[in-house]
Amino acid sequence: MTPNNSSRPLTFKGGIHPSKDGKALSRAAAVREAPLLAEYQLIVQQNVGAPPELLVKAGDELKKGQLVAKAGGFVSVPLHSPTSGKVKEISRIPGPMGVPVQAVIIVADGNDEWGELMPPLDWKTAEPQAVRDRVRDAGIVGMGGAAFPTHVKLSPPPDKKIDCLILNGAECEPYLTADHRLMVEFPEKVLRGAALLGRALGVKDIFIGVEVNKPDAIEILSSQAAGFGVKIVALQVKYPQGAEKHLISAITGREVPTGGLPMDVGCVVQNVGSTAAAADAVLEGKPLIDRIVTVTGEPVKTPGNWRLKLGTPVAEAIRFAGGVTCEPGKVILGGPMMGFAQKSLEVTVMKNTSGILLMKKDDIIQYQSTACIRCGKCLDACPMNLQPGSLSAAIESEKFDLAAKNNVMDCVECGSCAYICPAHRPLVQHFRRAKAEIRNRSKK
Amino acid sequence: MSEEVKAEVQAKIPAQAETPPPVMLPKGNELVLSSSPHIHAAENVPSIMFKVIIALLPAVFAGILLFGAAALLVIAYCIVFSVAAELLWCKLAGKPLSTVRDLSAVVTGLLLALNLSAGVPWWLCLIGAFIAIWLGKQVFGGLGHNPFNPALVARVALLIALPKYMTAWVPAKFMNGNAASYARQFFTPAAWNSVLGAPLDGVTCATPLGLVGTTAKVLGPAPGVFAEVANPTAYLQYFLGNVGGCLGETSALALLIGGLLLVLFKLIKWQIPVFYLGTVAVFTAVINYCFPGVTPPALFHLLTGGLMLGAIFMATDMVTSPMTEPGAIIFGIGCGIVTCVIRIWGNYPEGVSFAILFMNALVPLIDRFATKKPFGYHPWDRKKGAQA
Fold first, then answer.
1. Which of A176, B126, B336, B387 has the most CB atoms at less than 10 Å from its CB?
2. Which helix H or strand E contains B76, and what residues bound it?
3. CA distance linking residue A363 with residue A274, whole number of Å
4. Residue A233: phi, psi to the nearest 5?
5. Mean of the per-residue pLDDT values of chain A
6. C-beta atoms of A245 and B375 within 8 A
């Protein structure tokens, strides 16, 4: 299968073009290694699904890469120590979602010494099952933000025929450049990982979708892709191009059915960061203990991309970036469209932390929303072809059944509607609430 | 380099190395917590209204150019009274006066003025403004909640209640070959005084549509009966706006420029004016061809009356038109059919206002059915998912 032969970059219907993409701040900054910290606060649950089971207690000695927690079920992954040292305590620290979470506080011994690594596998002969097991044992999850265990996506039920692996290098969130730098600086790692994951799935067609605002990434990947049986697909710059369903739609023209998964249309989508991590796990036996994080935003003194160990506090990450030039109004984990605003700088880097974004106080506007003027911009922006305007009206009058009937559950919460609304209506916020409400009601 | 300077330089080097620049970390005690998205498009309601006003300017200038100082007076009255009506309502209803800042009352006032003759008395502007703002908009809950275009509600109410004033058309300044003395003509005391409340005598004229209506009724359908009003020379005058009529509706040229601006600003769905005008063109062409003498040719219909103003500025009002493209097409076609039926067989010579108001009433229905297929659903069975 080949994607649409036209030379034009591919895309999906709908979406928005954020006026300020902010990538210029950090896209030229090569990935830097962060200095070793004295202490890491490793959040225990870093994956969607079952929480991992903790294996260590206060006082335990740890080597770098040593198992800290084992997978708590099939939809779960183990967790490894980011450095060598000693467990100071198991305590609760501020979590990224605003509620305290369990964390292992590790005091580094300063040696940063690896423990016993998993045996490397040969990338040309590794068996599919061995690759799947290794991806699970290395604790790899969706590093674009979803944190869904990668090995689960590599293990589709037998009745689902998978013929296409798509790697997500769109990085459509403004400001973020972590995946961009990864593709430019470690193209071979990404391509090897792609070939390995393709083998694990038994697919012939492997695509890497990259937005055309990363021409250097497209060029370098394309120049080496043929040797790995991977095709590089140029995508239009549009948000949310990197949303799973819309990436599939852009590249294959297939439409994931409502309530379905990519595997229902024969596709599996993986983030390029997870793919590179899989390559490390298989070829070098290294578990996932660090990741590339974009530390950026106008208040940051030297915005850039750092390889940060899991458990690095946000405040320390900002220190690596030279601190701030002015007091920020917002600190966001992730990008400005779907990231989470933080109240505390003690939150630590997790497997799905793609960026730490600081916003100037002047850029924080508390909008007064006014009545819908039915301009229809939200309808054009919604990548799911929903009707955000009338949906929000239904939700505001507590008509959740009507909202469900009008497909609110299909909302991917990309926020395009709320971004574009000239009346500043909190549309996606209403939909999040309605989805939670409807889920709760159906449980009863 | 002198010894002194060298010593000075050397003294400085270790001092610099000893004090690395302090890293300023955020204190983090004033962080704002809010749900994503954290950025927002620059466009807001006032900026949309401002762009609409910009797009209306060609028609405003054409109106003043064609109908003189009296037109300016009518426009000023309508805007001032509309804003006053908005302010008064907000005051009485205990709403924040800040809603006046969204400029929507200015747009309504301007549209109302464009729908009036250049000789209407000031108190008619006052009544019109209050009907538009109060009955057309605020009783429904304000901007965004009104089912009908407020300016059209006012125009139709005035047309029915005060036909004598609403159909006293002031001739354009260039009619009757007076272009040479334009400067002197610009300020016509008769029209000016009429706006200020004096009776409008001796300066009225008929609109082309009005003429056609009378001709058809008096002479009955006969071939060639419209030759006087429907010929290339007359068409050029209609296109430029050099005829009698409402001060903003006569110049098709100015309105088309405004329409282009609206499309460029992405404020309207082009399907509404295109399908509206297209339907009128096809409908009248067919009637004109099949039943000679019943109605003038399509081009006459396109260039006369309030069709251009209605199709480009009134029917496309965001609040009162469908939100999807298929809905816009249905809406445009519907407006076209009702307009033609009224123009050809109705009692009124003009049907644009009634047609748009009629279709406004159907918008909720259109919006309910003319929806886009949600992503991931079966093309026609919306209860089912897309086929894998």
1. A176
2. helix B69-93
3. 32
4. -115, 125
5. 93
6. yes
Please answer whether residues A428 and A415 qualify as being in contact, where contact means their C-beta atoms are separated by less than 8 angstroms.
yes
The answer to whether the CB atoms of B35 and A372 lie below 8 A apart is: no
What pLDDT is recorded for position B15? Answer: 46
- Please list the ranges in chain B whose pLDDT falls under 50: 14-17, 388
pLDDT of residue B171: 84
Confidence bin at A300 (pLDDT 50/70/90): very high
Cβ–Cβ of B32/A428 closer than 8 Å? no
Q: List all residues of chain A from 25 to 54 with a beta carbon under 8 Å from chain B.
A: none
| ipTM score | 0.90
Cis peptide before A240 (omega within 30 of 0): yes
DSSP label of B226: T
pLDDT at B119: 87
Q: Which amino acid is at A382?
A: C
Q: Is A391 on the interface with B (CB under 8 A)?
A: no
Domains present along chain A, CATH in parentheses: 1-33+120-364 (3.40.50.11540), 377-443 (no CATH)
The pLDDT assigned to A272 comes to 96
pLDDT tens digits, residue range A141-155?
999 888 999 999 999
What local confidence, expressed as pLDDT, does residue B388 receive?
Answer: 46
Nearest chain B residue (CA) to A347: B28
Query: Burial of B28 by CB count in 10 Å (0-12 exposed, 13-18 middle, 19+ buried)?
Result: middle
| pLDDT value of residue B16 | 46
* CA-based nearest residue to B136, from B126, B151, B121, B117: B151
Residues in B 120-179 with any Cβ partner in A closer than 8 A: 141-145
pLDDT at B191: 79
Pairing of strands A290-296, A267-271: unpaired
Report the interhelical angle of A187-201 vs A272-284 (nearest 10°).
Answer: 80
Q: In whole angstroms, give the CA distance from residue B262 to residue A375.
A: 13
B-chain residues near A15 (CB < 8 A)? none
Q: What percentage of chain A carries pLDDT values higher than 90?
A: 89
The residue whose two tokens read 């009937």 is A405
Is pTM beyond 0.95? Reply is no
Cα A353 to Cα A179: distance, rounded to the nearest angstrom: 12
- Is A266 touching B (CB cutoff 8 A)? yes
Q: Does B383 reach chain A within 8 Å, measured CB to CB? A: no
pLDDT at B123: 95
Cα dist from B300 to A221, B191, B233, B334, B337, whole Å: 62, 27, 11, 20, 16
Phi, psi for residue A205 in degrees, rounded to 5? -90, 115
Instruction: Kindly determine whether residue A428 and residue B318, on different chains, have CB atoms separated by under 8 Å.
Output: no
B388 exposed, middle or buried (CB, 10 Å; 0-12, 13-18, 19+)? Answer: middle
State how far the Cα of A212 lies from the Cα of A232, in Å rounded to an integer.
11
The closest of A243, A169, A158 to A206, measured between CA atoms, is A169
